[in-house]
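User: Hey, quick favor. My workstation is busy. Could you predict this chain's structure for me?
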Amino acid sequence: MIDSLSFDWFILLLRVLFVFLLYFFLYQVVRVTTRELTALAASAAPPAPAPTGHPSGRLVIVDGGESALGPGTTFLLRPISLVGRHRDCTVEIDEPFVSGEHAELAIENGRWWVRDLGSTNGTFVNGQGVRVPTGVKPGDIVQFGRVKLQFVP
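Assistant: No problem, here it is.
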């Protein structure tokens, strides 16, 4: 009798554990789905217009590397512009050596600055690696991975 009772309790414990794991799995699916839908809705929102009064800037492709971007392709910069492969970036470059969020170009006190965001293959201004925020002047060549662009005011 004692052996059969302990076996019944063991089976009951296994059933309760199975139900708990099943509900935990469903909770994780709902949590991930909600997070993905929230991110998708946020990326579908139209971008905010750039404030006026700031000097504008452009990046013009000089060498597209392995991307489909040809020389002369122009990107208009916002006061704070992200560069990378991610589709939400201001300057979207689909090239294997460019990170998802590779670098940031921002204007501060009337001057443009480039800052590497921990990219794998680096950011360069006129061939020099960017370790700290670096000023960019008209005509400078800015390189993200293997893609080279010229900064034009």
